[in-house]
Amino acid sequence: MTATGEASTYPNFAELLQRKGDLTGTSWGLFPESGRGTPSFISKKAVLEAKDCIRTGTVFGLDYPADAFDPGMSLKRRAPRHTIYSSHPAHRDDYLDGYYLQGSTQIDGLRHRRADDVGFYNGTPDDRIIEGTPDLGVQEWAENPIAGRAILIDLDGYRNSLGEPIDHAAGEALGLDLIRTAMAAQSLRTRPGDILMLHTGWCEWFLALAAGEKQRIRERRKASGVAQSREFVAWAWDSQFAVVAADNFAVECLPVVSGSPFQLPAPNDHGMMHQQLLAKLGMPLGELWKLGPLARHMRGNGRWDAFISIKPLNITGGTGSPANATAIT
Ligand code: UVW
Questions:
Q1: Distance CA 236, CA 224 (A)
Q2: pLDDT score, position 4
Q3: What angle separates helix 230-238 from helix 176-185, to the nearest 10 degrees?
Q4: Is 308 near ligand 1, meaning CB less than 6 Å away?
Q5: What is the CATH number of the domain that holds 247?
Q6: Residue 127: inside a domain, yes or no?
Q7: Which of the listed residues 15, 158, 186, 289 has the most CB atoms within 10 Å of its CB?
């Protein structure tokens, strides 16, 4: 059974933990399409029902510009350089150099992380995760885009309503208790196949900083986000979320919470949850999403769901991509 009590053909997280050997805590082999991951939770019925989320005809682009985060939190990714050229006086064409596909609003693909202990999603051999091979690449979600119902949990709005804004400068860790409490305040219930959007307010806070201050935040390596916990991973799976997205750097907080249960299994990630969600469960992560305008609109009309489409770039073997996400309410 799922968290909502609907019949499900998938084991719950406690049952995943009972799987043997490398399969422990993974969804490997459970979905019919091997490279799709948890977007497979979205049934045709769920897509059809998602049309009922369109009530006002208002359309939101959820992507920031490709060069919005320069500097951003990433130590490597930079804004692309845009060149326009012309072959004759009536022609214009262009290209990008140095385009980090995860440099701005993005969806992390299933090749973005290898689990330190058991490897890539579905046991995909390491030597398949190279340029030119399709295994676990983002092209899967471009050829068969992700569409359905999105729900927005307004953590920023909830905390502001208490007079206790989220402390982005400190890189606040946002626990599952807070997420659940905010959800209850919104009278929001999840459905299998939902795309979860966590509105923290981090992107708008960061983008409003002066350049020097952004640089200082980047050097301190602190960014608010979901606190690493087994409970969050279990909740995300048991809720049958297709995607977990947020308007922050990495969905989860940086640095990881002290005592993160993933320190041992994910040493290369210093205990982050990325490996659990991407490599073990096949659950895509959306990062740096532009959720502020949508959250304010939803706050205004008290409805917290939307029809959403996510269509990454069709790049064979891409590890991630601009999300190209559109929400319609
Ligand atoms: C981190 O590793 C911090 O996040 P990502 O690579 O998904 O942006």
A1: 19
A2: 41
A3: 40
A4: no
A5: 3.50.30.50
A6: yes
A7: 289
Ligand 1: which of 64, 101, 102 to mutate, judged by most atoms within 8 Å of the beta carbon? Answer: 102
Which residue range(s) make up the domain with 186? 7-74+97-328
pLDDT in tens, 31-54: 999 999 999 999 999 999 999 999
Which amino acid is located at 191 in the chain? R
In a domain, 299, yes or no: yes
- Let me know if residue 80 belongs to a domain: no
| Count of structural domains within the chain | 1
Query: Burial level of 255, CB count in 10 A (0-12/13-18/19+)?
Result: middle
Beta strands in 91-136 (DSSP E): 93-97, 106-108
9 — pLDDT class (breaks 50, 70, 90): confident
Residue 89 lies in a domain: no
The β-bridge relationship of strands 146-154 and 305-310 is antiparallel
For ligand 1, is residue 252 a contact (CB within 6 Å)? no
